[in-house]
């Protein structure tokens, strides 16, 4: 990622000092009620802009405004779409420190520096824009056919708390590149930052193009407003990024849905792996934003032959190992029973928190720079089974690579989202790739390399496994249209007799 790391470090230090001063405790979030420059803009945005700059408290009005904006956009050329997308990218990167700070303060999960980085990352060709919409052509004896990508119209987007503004902004970049307008229903715990980002995008788009409300946001989002978007006749396509409940709800919406659902990415490490690189990769991926990424390494299956050496490499790379009783205590602290069936879910107070705070939950003090905790568990530990988004990663000892791959398959739960392997045995890699059948399959690197950050390919914050679109791009949000000229315009052919 091309960012000024020294600048970000300085600003992060400053922001953390402010955040800590405002709330008087750890670095993992701040009291959003605190008055200060991080709280004020988001709090005022929703109140004073209702009905314009994309701020709406009513789904009907939001859809109507987005439809008007869509119609206006439809009269402009591709160059104007490029300009609008560039405005969104530039706001994300140039205001990343402030917006990332607001998101961190409101959601109280993840790591501030990664909130900032995720916004900066949107201002990069790795996140595709208008240039992705290449037409297809067929030409021959019977003339010319051009297949082009048309917009849907107004798209309903449901976004998660784990990356509230980055997902919304990334959706907006893809959807507007394709010529659409959108109405977003953010997670209630990330609604203020979503509204503030949307207000800033629309303000700048309006100044530059005269179009308002191209990106609309429901300022007080609820399950009811999400369902109203699903059911709305003015919404042509719904795009959800979230966990199992919203994925199921979208699939019942009665209209086309792009579903970027949950994951529980397993990692396999076999006896041929570069263990040092494997350890560093697991830490880089799992510790990023305190394991909030849906693609992040959540559980590791390691062949017995190299298990102890990998554990040593993890410690050498800076992670802190928990042993025996400590793992039991961590497991007891990290999960709660929920629902009528009393299934286990991550304890909210530890989800997306720093390793220091996780350690403190079992009375352990670790170096403040500790990126990740880890330890040996058996396969039945809830850290393996539940999509946990925490800075403790379980390592399960396996007799051989076959068992490791089989367990990975089982605990990915058929989401077909993301899986990873560290291996130099092409047969093992191939076997796992085939069996897992996941949208992302990353070999010998951290999870984010699968999205082009340290690897090849493009990036998105919405990875649509259940409905099959994969890593979403502007093409995902288009309809195919064909334009055919019969018998003419094939300029390579013989001159026609009637010419
Ligand atoms: P979440 O499922 O709690 O919420 C996601 C969004 O859906 C929110 O806006 C929420 O208000 C809404 N929602 C939840 N239940 C709903 C229902 N029954 N009807 C309508 N709307 C509903 O998820 P989260 O905690 O915000 O985010 C984490 C989850 O999202 C994880 O499961 C993670 O894997 C997944 N995720 C997936 C991707 C991807 O690209 N596939 C990306 C990010 C996050």
What does this structure look like?
The protein is of the alpha/beta class and 499 residues long. The protein has two domains: 5-261 and 472-479, Aldehyde Dehydrogenase, Chain A, domain 1, CATH 3.40.605; 266-457, Aldehyde Dehydrogenase, Chain A, domain 2, CATH 3.40.309. Helix content is 40%, strand content 19%. The strands form five sheets. Strands 11-14-15-10-9-16-17 form a seven-stranded parallel beta sheet, with helices on both faces. A six-stranded parallel beta sheet has the order 1-6-5-4-7-8, sandwiched between helices. The protein has a three-stranded antiparallel beta sheet with strand order 2-3-20, with no helix packed on it. Helix 15 (382-385) links the parallel strand 14 and strand 15. The radius of gyration is 24 Å and the shape is globular. The chain binds nicotinamide-adenine-dinucleotide. Nicotinamide-adenine-dinucleotide is lined by residues 158-162, 185-188, 223, 226, 241-243, 245-246, 249, 260-263, 294, 387, 462-463.
